[in-house]
Amino acid sequence: MKFQALRNLSCHRTLLAGAATVAFVLAAGAGPASAAANCIKGDRKAPYTVGWANIYSVPTWMKQTEGTITAEVEELKKSGLVKDLMITDAQGNAQTQIQQIQSMIDANVDAIIVIAGSSSALDRVISDACDKGIAVVNFDSLVDTDQVTAKINTDSNEWGATAAKWMVDQLGGKGKIIVMNGPAGISVSDDRRKGAQPVLDANPGLEIITETNTEYNAAPAQEAMTSLLFANAEIDGVLSLGGALSAGSVMAFDRQGRGQVPTTGENARQFLELWKEKGLKGWATMQPNWLGALAVYTAVQALEGKDVPAFVKVPLPVIDDTTIDTYLARAGQFPADGYIYSDYDKALFDKLLAQ
């Protein structure tokens, strides 16, 4: 997620790498009058109005994510649980997002779904929504406050640490690497970088010659890497902490006639296709777009009186040479600049909420 652009715009009914191994059971709860979930209070009854406070709608990752939200709302409408979906777009501005969330509070929506444009700036308005009895579910880029109904995410620290360990193994603990980050100040980007640091500290033979912060889009990432290629004759690996960033890096190396180096990344279709095409030494994982759908489902379950977890941890799959073909086999179902995410359904969501 992103000030200039959040991440490019979701486990498993399929065999997609690791995430299908989740096994849980949804805890049953009491009726709305005795709701156990945080924030829920007042006389809120189905069908509910849900607000989707989007920080930025342009990147493909966000478009795909919004697609899972709208699809889940349509399913819940069929069940008589949701009436309306209110969508706002802050266009990358955290202050605008605060104003839009405040408008949702003033409209007395029943639930607010949010990816935070700032981990700290939204705390007051999010807490205010919670105090008003509105279900608040925060996913992907998280706020600092715990005054929410639930937070949903993969483990970004684990993401960074696992990527760094893979790089250490690929280079035998020695070499010159470039670190590619998403926008500074976005929790998912900052946390991935924090997760990588202890691994890098433990392997001083890996020299970080430079690192970047760019939008989660291939074009600016390619531009940034092109400049770094001109400035650095020797690069042994690219520790990229975002899928579109990795695609931009691979394209920059290719267009400059430089040999590809071990590169980490995400399930961005473009990166996975380039990985296969160039015979890249690669590693990736997945931030599923269906976290958005899960957030809507979680909010409605809470409003219905279910005791949902304060934090829902979604397992990280591993994409490597043994699993990449499973993802690429489904590539045609997703935009060329999109992310290949796994299938999802109510049964999966129920298992995740049973943690």
Task: Please tell me about this protein's structure.
- With 355 residues, the chain is α/β, with parallel strands linked by helices.
- The protein has two domains: 19-154 and 288-315 and 332-353, Rossmann fold, CATH 3.40.50.2300; 156-285, 3-Layer(aba) Sandwich (Rossmann fold), CATH 3.40.50.2300.
- It has eleven helices and eleven strands.
- The strands form three sheets. The protein has a six-stranded parallel beta sheet with strand order 2-1-3-4-5-11, sandwiched between helices. The protein has a three-stranded parallel beta sheet with strand order 7-6-8, with helices on both faces.
- Helix 1 packs parallel to helix 9 and helix 4 runs parallel beside helix 5 (187-201).
- The radius of gyration is 20 Å and the shape is elongated.
- Residues 1-35 have low confidence and may be disordered.
- Keywords: Signal.
- It is found in: Cell envelope.
- Its main location: other.
- Residues 1-35 form the signal peptide.
- Residues 54-307 form the Periplasmic binding protein domain.
